[in-house]
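Possible race condition, two jobs.
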Amino acid sequence: MHRLLTRLLGLLGALWLLIPLGHAEPYRQPAPATRAALDAPLPARTLVSPDRRWLALITPRRYTPLAELARPQVKLAGARFDPQAHASALGSAALVTLRLRPLMDPQAAERVIALPPGGAWHGFAWAPDGRHYILMRRTLSRSELWWGETAGGEPQLAGGIALNLVLWEGDPVWLSATELVVPTVVPSRAPAPALPGPQIQDHHGRGSPERTLPDLLRNEQDDALFEHHARSQLMAFQVSTGARRRLGEPGLFTSVAVAGRGQALLTERMTRPFSRHLAWDDFPQVAEVRDRQGRVLRELARLPSRAGIPIDGVIPGPRVFYASPTDDAAVYWVEALDSGPVSSKSSYRDRVMRLDPPYRGDPVEVQRMPYRFSRLRFLENGQHALLTETDRSRAITRTYLLPLDGSQSRLLFEHPLRERFRHPGSPLMRTLPHGGRVVAMDADREDFWFVGSGAGPKGERPFLDRYGLRDHPIQRVFHAPEGSVEMPIGWVDERRLLTQVERGQEPAQLGVREGSTWRALLPPRDFGASLRTIKRQYLSFKRDDGVELSAWLLLPPDHQDGQKRATLIWAYPREFTDGELASQAAAYSELGGLPAPGSPVWLALEGYAVVVEATMPVVGDSRTVNDGFIEQIQLNAKALVDQLRDVGSVDVSRLAIGGQSYGAYMAVNLLAHTQLFKVGIARAGAYNRTLTPFGFQSERRSLWEARDAYLRASPFLHAERIKEPLLLIHGEQDPNPGTPVLQSERLYHALAGLGQTARLVVLPLEGHSLASREAAGQVQWEMQQWLRRHLGPPLR
């Protein structure tokens, strides 16, 4: 009887699975013209070989197929990855086509690289010699390494190598001009642990003010599963012959750098104990120097977990390790000279330490810094570096020319972090023949260059400045012609400069400048006719306290003078320490680039006026700026609406406000605290700041230190004041700290409970931004329908 009952229940269960439980909502699509614009192919990215002889043209994938997004994911220690491919989601990093051509011959035929079908291709990179390249392919079962010769032949599979990219980030690591270091899946490992266990968290008094993070480890089974997938075997692969060799023993490697011309490896690997409230990159680490075979020469430091370290604080002892890419082959690191937190008082915050080959003696101090260390870049001569430090309490940064022998450094410049008009730019970099990345210098090793955007009140005029090792005036080597955004890329030789010209509605154009002559290297391209037909108007105005603001007003192709249109304003707030810097952000800047899927720009093709790039500055002391967040965005919104009223083509009685992420947070706050708008659209935002109690955006105080700021700036807690219809859109798999889909769900439930008009759209398989073609169409359809429903047709 018991067996019969069991079989009957099993049969009923099987029948139950066949009963339809309801159909999923179908994906909606926007108007055909908008759909066609969303489907326009992306322009090819260009990548010049290190020897300046070849150019790669890489066509990126526009959308990620739903089937790829639906593949099983493991979510552990703040990482999300495919357990079969041992890699995180590709998204737009995938490529569709790859073409190679000689750089300096515009008439040369392009060579299309025949990519074998199956899987998703990505990760193209030049070998330092320029005669080879590498590619990666992700299949259903593994991540593969491929390589090829630039001059001819098809790409070849690196046999016997299954890449493990779970913890691997950044550029390829080259031991020499042709030998690459890659992390691979550990062979003959035990099966992944499968049995779950209880979830227990234990704390013993020490403060842990970490930000709210998703996908953390929960129990010992998670620990074991994470280590199973993240553990890798370093392998050296020769792209000229296909030979491979193991480097040392497997480990939880998080980074590898090469010292000098391949004399040694600087590795960092993760160790236990893992944390239940930190992501993997804040777990304990061990930094080691290894020889070319992967054998440990010296352990440099054991870095503790960041548990209990304030958001702007640093761990005690050594941190941030560098391997010199030049002939000295030294390793460098940074040590705190204070207790770590920004609030602590100290004459010097950090110091830079150096250890020379054979890595056996005591390290020597190279430089002490009054501010917190930020970055180290090595000059090509191997005797100097550029050292950058940052004072976050005053939001300023300094860069020094640092002699690596420890002698007196020279301050090159100091400026606010948000500086635009007087920003010195960034150093011009180059890849050495053996693979190291350095600050480029002239043939005599006496001068180096900085490239900047040249931002000013009337727009951008990029420049190239020459700096000398000796203390002499800075020389402006190149300044883009008036009205041209021409950005230097690097020197082809002593006379010719590789530059990139950017125009508003066209892809960037690569060319060569020799004196006053500029020659394009590729035929002109564009983003498509639909984008060019949208009418554009630049707006410049002030808010009541004198801070300069700006925005772009986009109008439909058929707009006529005298017409007034329903309008969507799309914006994102940013913090500034003073009004002058905030006004710099409002300087003229051409509206360029192809709008992303789901961009409000495309609504202009459906009859609506759209305001984009609206500056929304929040000005104040960096420590307390959020105390006035509501008042500041009110000032911004009032000034913008007044300006739109004067423009004449906007019906200010039919305005919508919207934004993405922090912009969504701003938009909902404006609905709660103003009566300027009739409707709102908020995508992937955070609305209840009590769910992020240890800081958000630039806020460093905790909820208990700034309770009033957190409560007042949480629109969820003022939901009863949101009388306007609100469309909430959120990716179900949003991994962004602070913006889980729960934020939109809870706000929707609050509005529904209060009897307000609201709509919640949760996009399956999507993250913080849109990935699939289907979701892009759905979002565009949702926004257009929402505006039409609550603002009426674009024209009345």
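Job #2 (started ~2 s after job #1):
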Amino acid sequence: MADFTTWDAGGETINIRKDLRVPMRDGVELAADAYHGAEDKPRPALVALSPYGKELQAFALTMPPQRRPSPLWDGCIEAGDIARVVQEDYVHVIGDLRGSGGSGGEMIGNYNAGGVSLGQDAYDFIEWVAEQSWCDGNVGMIGISYFGSMQVLAAAERPPHLKAIFVSGGHFDFYETTYHGGIMWFMPRAAREGRGGDSGIAHTNVKSRMQEMYSREELQKLVEARLEDPDVAAWPNLVHVLRYPTNREFWFDIVLNHLDGEWYEERNPITLAPNIDIPVYLQIDQGRGWTVDGTIELFNVLKGPKRLDIGPYPPMQSRPFVEEHDTMFRWYDYWLKGIDNGVLDEPEVTVSVEGSRERVTGSQWPPKEVEYRSLYLRPRRKLSPEPELMGAEYAAPDGFYQVPLTVTDKVEILSWSTEPFEENTELIGTGAAHLFAEIDQDDTNFILRLWDTAPDGNRQLITTGYLKASHRELDERTTEGNPYHPHTRTVPVEPGTIEEYVLRLYPFANTFKPGHRLTVELSNDEPLADAHNALLPPDAFHLPVGRPVTHKIYRDAAHPSRLVLPFTTRNAAEKK
């Protein structure tokens, strides 16, 4: 039996139905809380589902929104502003996924890949909510990150009463969320283990999918094979996870599955998205390039009414999460309440352009016409629109020697810069970096970061690119300035040979103002602390290379190392 309590939110009464039990089709019950106004009437409902714990989300009633580096900032208070939802005359329903919080059942693997589909649970949850006396049968969803991904999984199941979704800051292609260019990212560890300031999953009964699929003997062989990677073997946390996996279920699965393929694709929300036929609003901020990439990919496969809004840098939002609510309620007022507020007359794509701080609109991504132009790496750390004419004997390669971070704290970085721009120069889209490089090992990381550098030396990160050298193969989707890597196998590098490596630069939008320079930095590890990483949790870095590597970057007439970037055309600018 659910408890019924009230809360005084600044003079407005909120009725709270605590610990509701929501039955799933297999008999498991999920726990939920429902918040709504004092007047006893049916209302549209906004559902929030995650494994992060409904009790944690209740902090939104008592904690003012805070940005990093507040010590009270918590990455998983992400279900939205409860008081605002109630004030807008919706029911806010916050539920715990199976195997977490107050819910029953077990969760197997991320998104329950291999177990009961969380999309299936979301279907049952939404249809139960729609039948309650306090709901008028119109249901939407709310919440960022994992909550956002759950919206897509739910919509793909087509529950009849789910009328629209509004997804902010979701993560979709889970391989791309955990391996950038084949390089492992440590951030997902925070979601599972609560490191980096994030509370983590409120797990009660979660299991490793790999431990469900394989025998102990088979797993031991897979672990030993993974430890043959010197990067993994040199990093204590990963050795610990692989040797003692029992209490690190999801992280263990991620570490063992370092290649893309069926394991990640089975319940990839982007794979399921063509099933979605309801209106979808996608919102993401710049600065977490890989998440922007997945959001755009999702937008492109959706068939129904849709919107894409790429907001300004920085990417990390307040906790409790309160941003984007104005836009969200306009969306839901139209689709759930039938209020004709003009949302259908607004453009499909809106992008905030860094530098100019303008918002440009269009019907697709990128929202303007672009032409790809090259900026070539030249001697004396210059970037130029003109290619190098001299051979390698005169345009000798740049180079750096990186010692493993297990024995040093110094990250070696090469950089190249343009001359100051003479007029506003706008770039919107994806990009590519073609690097002709020679290494003395059979693998390394290439980490590229593009900056907008002001005359006074201040700078802002524009985009990033990552590639593990053994993942350099390209696939048939690759076009000029828009490379793709399959990441389905590794191809070791022959030491001492010059190879062309093509890095995907994640989507971005920036105007370089007169006097500003474009600066590109290359390393095989990344600084553990700088102006950009200060916005992210302390362990939001990539797995360092576990052995010393010498890198030579050729940029001569025979080896045209270059950036290929999306410059908006004058015709496009004139059409604004």
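The mean pLDDT is 92.
Logs attached separately.
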